[in-house]
Amino acid sequence: MNRLLPTAHLVDGSLYVFRAWHSMPDEFTDAEGHPANAVHGFTRFLCELLEKTKPEHIAVAFDASLTTSFRNAIYPAYKANRELPPPDLERQFVLCREVAEALGIVVLIDHSFEADDLIGSVLWNLRSQGFRSVIVSADKDFGQLLGEHDEQWDYGRGLRWGPAGVYEKLGVHPHQVADYLALCGDSVDNIPGVPGIGAKTAAALLAHFGDLDALLDRADEVAFLRLRGAASAAKKLREHGEDARMYRRLTRIALDAPVPDSADALRRQRSEWSRLEALCERLRFGPLTRTRLKALID
């Protein structure tokens, strides 16, 4: 992992807004009396991240596509197990984006592509320009994006890992993560996977066959592997092979989302205190947060 390469920090914004919403007390309100706990918590997180990393290149991606992403067209049940954010939280998402923009950070959002796809597409573009990326998120799906010099950073737990860490966590290499999730499913996104194929079996099958296509093409061979329930697994793979291929279209992060293509477009911009100060008034930020915000743009 070459930490000397120019680095871009790509932040999974929605994750940290939700974390703030669940962890911050509901005593915070804005000037109009609406709840503001999520935006207070998210702003503190953003301040801390900027103070620690002092990034030249940074973007924060948000989800706006819970029911409208291209994956819903492929599989209508995708994420159907999730409730839509309540209006109070929806309002705070907008304010969190405003805070990020006021701090000079590029905000990425799209109604057809999820935050994962926006981050993946930026990372892919930047890699071709000699950059390494640090993905700030705890989401296991991002493992599929990690190249030799990239890292994922679970900020809340203070854990960082590169491609080798993906294997330690899941038992598969980054290029196998989408196949792995298609096989064993992902309950968070309402993707069922192949019945009877759990995480350990999926990892063992991919270690043997390499990828999902080779596995499905040679499904008959699975019955002869030294694997618990091998005969049953072979039968399920024959029956649900096309489903698994379809699930992979859901678990694979898109690399062609509409994002800025040049590294320069992701440079942190100079900010005007007047814009931030107005936000501080609206959100009733205390003196400590105001001082931190002011220091970050001086």
From TrEMBL:
<dbReference type="GO" id="GO:0003677">
    <property type="term" value="F:DNA binding"/>
</dbReference>
<keyword id="KW-0238">DNA-binding</keyword>
<dbReference type="InterPro" id="IPR002421">
    <property type="entry name" value="5-3_exonuclease"/>
</dbReference>
<dbReference type="GO" id="GO:0017108">
    <property type="term" value="F:5'-flap endonuclease activity"/>
</dbReference>
<dbReference type="Pfam" id="PF01367">
    <property type="entry name" value="5_3_exonuc"/>
</dbReference>
<keyword id="KW-0378">Hydrolase</keyword>
<feature type="domain" description="5'-3' exonuclease">
    <location>
        <begin position="8"/>
        <end position="269"/>
    </location>
</feature>
<dbReference type="InterPro" id="IPR008918">
    <property type="entry name" value="HhH2"/>
</dbReference>
<dbReference type="GO" id="GO:0008409">
    <property type="term" value="F:5'-3' exonuclease activity"/>
</dbReference>
<dbReference type="InterPro" id="IPR036279">
    <property type="entry name" value="5-3_exonuclease_C_sf"/>
</dbReference>
<keyword id="KW-0540">Nuclease</keyword>
<protein>
    <submittedName>
        <fullName>Exodeoxyribonuclease IX</fullName>
    </submittedName>
</protein>
<dbReference type="InterPro" id="IPR038969">
    <property type="entry name" value="FEN"/>
</dbReference>
<dbReference type="InterPro" id="IPR020045">
    <property type="entry name" value="DNA_polI_H3TH"/>
</dbReference>
<dbReference type="InterPro" id="IPR029060">
    <property type="entry name" value="PIN-like_dom_sf"/>
</dbReference>
<dbReference type="Pfam" id="PF02739">
    <property type="entry name" value="5_3_exonuc_N"/>
</dbReference>
<dbReference type="GO" id="GO:0033567">
    <property type="term" value="P:DNA replication, Okazaki fragment processing"/>
</dbReference>
<dbReference type="InterPro" id="IPR020046">
    <property type="entry name" value="5-3_exonucl_a-hlix_arch_N"/>
</dbReference>
